[in-house]
Amino acid sequence: MHLAAFVTAGPGRPGGWRYPDSVPGWLGAEYYQNIARTLEDGRFDLAFFADILSVPDRFGSSTDSQLRNGALGSLRLDPLHVLTSMGAVTKHLGLAATVSTTYAQPFTVARSFATLDHLTAGRAAWNVVTSFQESEARNFNRDEQFPREKRYERADEFLEVAGKLWDSWEDDALVLDAQAPLFAEPSKVHAIDHKGEWFTVQGPLNVPRPPQGYPVVIQAGASAKGKDFAARWSDVIFCSHASLESAQDFYREIKERAAAHGRDPRQVKILPSIAPVVGPTTEVARQTADLLFDLVPPLGGLSTLAYHLDVDLSTFPLDERLPDVEVPGVEGHYREVREITEREGLTLRELGKQYGGRVEGGFVGTGADVADGLEQWFTEGACDGFMVQAPYQPGGFEDFTRQVVPELQKRGLFRTEYEGATLRENLGLHRSEAGEWSNRAPKQPSAAK
C-alpha cells in the first residue's frame, strides 16, 4: 500500500491544536522539517499540504468561528515555501502542495512545480483544486466566484497549458557544452503558442523539463464533474468516506472512469483519508480519542463544514438534524455527513463536533488494531493506500510511524525501503512522456476569450 501524510501548515483540526501534546510551531521551518524527517523514517510516499486562499467566513458571514476556534483556515502558510524547507532535509519523501487553477496562471504554476521538482530531484506533486468560496474570489479582484462548470472548464485548459509548458523543453535540450559554446539547444526548446478560451500563453517555459516529466498530480473531485476531472488528469486521488462500502463504490467508479478515458487504472492511486488514534493499548487509544473529541468546539467543526459545503449552517437550529440542502461546495463531504447523520441520528451541534474531531474509518487502537483496519480496506478493494491525518501535530505522525508502520511492514503490506529515486517511481507510476497530457485534454474552443 501507499501512505501519504496530510500535513497542515497551521493549527489544522479545531480540537487537535488544544491537545496537551500538540506542539504549536506552525510559523517555523524546523517544525515542518521535523515532521518531514519522521515521515521519511516511516517510508511515507509523500507529505501533502492542503491550502485555502482566505479565512473562511461562510458560517454566519464572519471569520469569528474560524479564528476563535483555530479551525480549518484560521492560519495557513504558503505550502510551496514550506515544502522547499522540507525538501532540504529529506531525500525520498514526495512533496505535494495545493494550488488553485481558479486564481493562478499556468505559466507561474508550471514554473513553480518544475523548479520544486528539480530542486528535490523528482519529488514534486501538485494538488489541483478549483476554488469555490466567495471569500476567496473577493481576495482576487472578483465580486463572486466562477460557476462550477466554468471552474472545471478553466481547470481543464489550465492543466493542458501546464503540460505544454513542461514539454516545451525536450529532455535533452540542456547541453552545457562550455567549449562550443552551447548552453541549451535552441531547436529543442519550443514556444507553445497556446490560444484558448481562458488562456493565451506563448512559452517556452524558462525551466527545463521536470525530472518526472510532469510532477505527480493529485485531485479530490467528488461531484460527477469532479470525479471525471480526477479520472482524466490525476495520478493520485484523495477522498474521504464514512464506510468501507462507500469507499469500495468510489474505488470501482474511479477506476472505470479512468479506463473510459483510455488510461491504465493501475496508474491512478486512490488514497482515502484516515485520522487514526494510536496508543500502547486499546484502552489508552480510546481515552486519547475521547479527549481529542471533547476538545472540539462544535462551532469550530460547523464552520469548517460550512466552508466545505459552501452553505451557511448558522441559519439552521443547532439541536435539530441537518436538513436536505443544495450544496454549491464539495458534494462528497455532503454525502458523507448525510450518511453519518442518518446512521447516528446526530443533531447539527453534534455533527459539528463529529466533523471537527472525527476519526475516519474508526481507526482507534494499538498499532496492530489500526493495521487490521487498514489491511481490510486495502485487501477488500477500497483503496491503494491511505492519506493519514494526524489528530494532533506532530505527535500523531510519530505515533503512526512508530506503531502502525512496523505492523504493516511485518505483514508485507508496506515497504521497508524506498524502491525508486522519484515520487513517481515510489508510487509505481511511469515517467510521463512528452505530449501525454495533451491527449487527456478535452477539446477547447480555439478563439481567445
Label this structure with key terms:
eight-stranded parallel beta barrel, TIM Barrel, two-stranded antiparallel sheet, single chain, 13% strand, 449 residues, globular, 14 strands, 16 helices, alpha/beta
What can you see in these coordinates?
With 449 residues, the protein is an alpha/beta fold. The protein has one domain: Alpha-Beta Barrel (TIM Barrel). Helices cover 40% and strands 13% of the residues. It contains 16 helices and 14 strands. The protein has helices spanning 29-41, 64-69, 79-87, 106-119, 134-137, 148-166, 224-233, 244-260, 282-294, 298-309, 331-344, 348-357, 367-379, 395-410, 423-427, 436-440, and strands at 2-7, 46-49, 94-100, 124-129, 174-177, 182-184, 194-195, 200-201, 216-219, 236-239, 269-274, 277-278, 364-365, 385-389. The strands form four sheets. Strands 1-2-3-4-9-10-11-14 form an eight-stranded parallel barrel, surrounded by five helices. Helix 6 (148-166) packs parallel to helix 7 (224-233), helix 7 (224-233) crosses helix 8 and helix 13 (367-379) packs across helix 14 (395-410). It is globular, with a radius of gyration of 22 Å. The termini are far apart.
